[in-house]
Each structure stands twice: as structure tokens, then as C-alpha cells.
Design a protein that fits this description.
With about 375 residues, this protein is α/β, with parallel strands linked by helices. About 30% of the residues lie in helices and about 20% in strands. The chain has a 4-stranded mixed beta sheet with strand order 5-4-1-6, with no helix packed on it. A 4-stranded mixed beta sheet has the order 3-2-7-16, covered by helices on one side. Helix 11 packs across helix 12. The protein starts with a strand and ends in a 10-residue tail after the last strand. The chain binds zinc ion. Zinc ion (ZN) binds next to loops.
Length: about 375
């Protein structure tokens, strides 16, 4: 049993408590919150400088790409980045496994307790079986040629089944509107069953994606034409969101949204990956357009980032938005836990086992009670 207190306690399901106290069991389960240090015998209190908040949720990662750290050149744009990811197979199984293990260790050291992770392979399965962190696995699928869609879907189902066999939360998801034709979106929607809680999709990560759907021109159109992609991808969709309609009404996490506009907003959950956006496109979303209760935070992969730290991502949002500290911490923890269905994470509500983070250096930030 421990009684933890700091300058501020941020339970996240309620307002921050100045000098509040968190009582947790030896297993990390939240037992109670106290408003006043006088309620607890002084010798039992552990007093820290800074703020205490629940463990972070990294709502978007590609753990299996961790070995590509430092290979992509910064600011070269998305198509150049895609070419770099093609190098993923030029490594040994052992190198890939070591990178995955180190990346997970880094997330743990950085106070992350839950992850929404994109998978194209079973490379991360070994590590995830250890249950060091909670994962929601998204089996990512794409295929721009209509005649090869059935094969892609079949491989995705096989992959999903392997993850589910290991009792891991797993759902088949479309990669992005520009890489998945309508026919394939409908097939993905048909695969949704009672075990699927959430879909995830990369959205509006580049200006070229908007140009493709809204104007039927630009680098993405040229690229898709050059690989003889099915024109169904852009012909009947007038913006990226038209693709979501093909998925039926389902809980979806839209990832990146770097070039999303106010009128693009839907009632879905949104995930921002600021450092990756700066790394690849040297751009950030306009944060005022989001519903702050539905905004989550992700690191993306070590291919497009130099670290897996939600706190570093938060710092970028803080510098580029009007969100107060309470809202920022909800974005870092509570919202992601809600989106990914991690019921025991995200807040200091009684009975949860959310992990405890002590943040120093945020002390000077003005806290509104
Ligand atoms: Zn991604």
C-alpha cells in the first residue's frame, strides 16, 4: 500500500487536486484519492516534486518497424518515406527482434502502459506474449489492384488469427483511403465481428492525399497511375472521409489528420503523431479543429521518429495549441485508453490499474482548478 502525493494530482476523470494523494495497492490498483494531506499519517506519505498522472497510452505505433530507426531522411515527404519502409526486409530476424524489445523497453521507461500498434507481420508477437504492456493490434491491409484484394484479405485473416490465438486484441484495418479501394473497404467491414472494438486508419497525412480526392490531381494520382492502381480509389470519393462511409458505422480511430480541415471533422476518435508529422512532412495539424475529448496521441514508429515518448509528443502539442495541462494529459492517457478500450487504464478511478507517472518540469505550468 502506498500514498503518493505531489504538487498536483491529475486523476483525469475529475479536476486536478492541489497536493492531492493517490492511494494504490502493491499491485498498482487505485484504492482511493484524498484531497488533503492531513487525512493521511505523515510518515506514510511519499511526497514528490512535480505532478502525478496515470500512465500514458501510445495510441499509434508500428513496433515492428523499430529496426528502421534513423534510416528515413527527415523532411523528404511521404512518398520518399514509403520507399524507406520497403527496406524493412533487409535485416535479420534477430536484428528485428532486438529492436522490438528495445523499443518496448523505451516505452516502459517513458511511462507508457498501453499501445495501439499497427502490424503487417507476426514479428512483434513474441514480445507481446510477455504482456509487459497492453496492446491493441491492428492488422493493416492494403491493395491498390482490385484483382489482388482477395489474396490480401486472406493473408490479413491468417495474421489476425495468429494474434488472436495468443489472446491479443486484434482487428483487421485498412491502411489509408488512397491504398484501399471501395471494394476492399467493404470486405474489411464484412470481417468485423464481436471481438472487434475499434478500427484504425491513416488519414490526411499529406497534402497529396487531399489533392487526390478533392481535385483528382497531384503526386498521389501520378503515383497511383504509375502503378496501374484501381481508379475506384479516387473516382467516387470526393474527400478522404468518403472512404469511411464504406466501413459502415463503426468506432474508428483516424490517425495523423495533419492536413484535416474543420469541415472534415467527424464524431470519431482522432490520433495525432506530431513528431512524426514534423519528421516526414515538416507540418502539424491545426489543433483547434479537434474535439479535445476525442483526441489521442501516438508516437508512430521509430522509422519516422527518434524516440517513443508520449511526453515529448505532448510538449510539441503544448507549444502549438491552446490546450491547458489537464486537457493535454487527457490526450496523453484517458482519451487513448477510451478509444482502444483499455478499461483499466487512463484515469485514477477506483479499481483501475493505470500506472503512475511523475512528471517534473511541468510544475511551472499554470493549473486551473
Ligand atoms: Zn502509422
Amino acid at each position: 500500500m502506498r500514498f503518493l502525493t505531489a504538487d498536483y494530482l491529475f486523476p483525469l476523470h475529475k479536476a486536478p487536486i492541489k497536493e492531492g494523494i493517490l492511494q494504490i495497492s502493491d499491485k498498482g490498483e487505485v484504492i482511493a484519492l484524498f484531497e488533503n494531506r492531513n487525512e493521511i499519517p505523515q510518515d506514510k506519505l511519499e511526497v514528490f516534486d512535480g505532478i502525478i498522472c496515470p500512465g500514458f497510452v501510445n495510441a499509434h505505433c508500428h513496433l515492428e518497424l523499430s529496426h528502421l530507426l534513423g534510416i528515413a531522411k527527415k523532411g523528404k515527404g511521404f512518398l520518399d518515406f514509403l520507399a524507406t519502409v520497403q527496406e524493412r526486409n533487409n535485416f535479420t530476424k534477430e536484428e528485428i527482434q532486438i529492436a522490438i524489445e528495445n523499443a518496448e523497453q523505451q516505452m516502459i521507461a517513458n511511462g507508457i502502459v498501453g499501445v495501439g500498434d499497427i502490424c503487417n507481420t507476426t514479428d512483434t508477437l513474441l514480445q507481446k506474449r510477455k504482456e509487459n504492456l497492453q496492446y491493441y493490434n491492428f492488422i493493416e491491409t492494403f491493395q491498390v489492384h482490385n484483382d489482388k484484394i482477395d489474396d490480401a484479405i486472406q493473408s490479413a485473416v491468417l495474421l489476425r488469427n495468429q494474434f488472436r490465438k495468443a489472446k491479443l486484441k486484434t482487428t483487421i484495418v485498412p491502411h489509408a483511403p488512397y491504398s484501399v479501394p471501395p471494394k476492399m473497404m467493404r470486405k474489411i467491414a464484412d470481417l468485423i465481428d464481436e471481438k472487434d472494438e475499434l478500427l484504425a486508419i491513416h488519414m490526411q497525412e499529406t497534402l497529396a492525399e487531399n489533392e487526390l480526392f478533392e481535385k483528382k490531381e497531384g503526386p498521389f494520382l501520378n503515383w497511383l497511375n504509375s502503378i496501374s492502381a484501381s481508379s475506384g480509389i479516387w473516382e467516387k470519393r470526393n474527400n478522404s472521409h468518403d472512404a469511411l462511409k464504406e466501413l459502415d458505422k463503426h468506432k474508428i480511430l483516424l490517425v495523423h489528420n495533419t492536413f484535416a480541415k474543420k469541415e472534415d471533422m467527424t464524431g470519431n476518435y482522432y490520433c495525432t503523431c506530431p513528431k512524426a508529422n514534423l519528421y516526414i512532412e515538416n507540418s502539424l495539424p491545426e489543433y483547434s479543429i479537434f474535439d479535445a475529448d476525442k483526441l489521442c496521441l501516438g508516437t508512430d514508429s521509430l522509422t519516422s521518429n527518434n524516440s517513443l515518448s508520449i511526453l515529448e509528443e505532448l510538449q510539441i502539442i503544448k507549444e502549438n495549441s491552446d490546450f491547458d495541462l489537464h486537457t493535454l494529459l487527457k490526450i496523453a492517457s484517458k482519451n487513448g485508453a477510451e478509444a482502444l478500450g483499455f478499461e483499466k487504464l487512463g484515469t485514477f478511478e477506483k479499481g483501475k490499474i493505470p500506472g503512475v507517472n511523475l512528471i517534473m518540469g511541468f510544475k511551472e505550468v499554470e493549473v486551473v482548478d
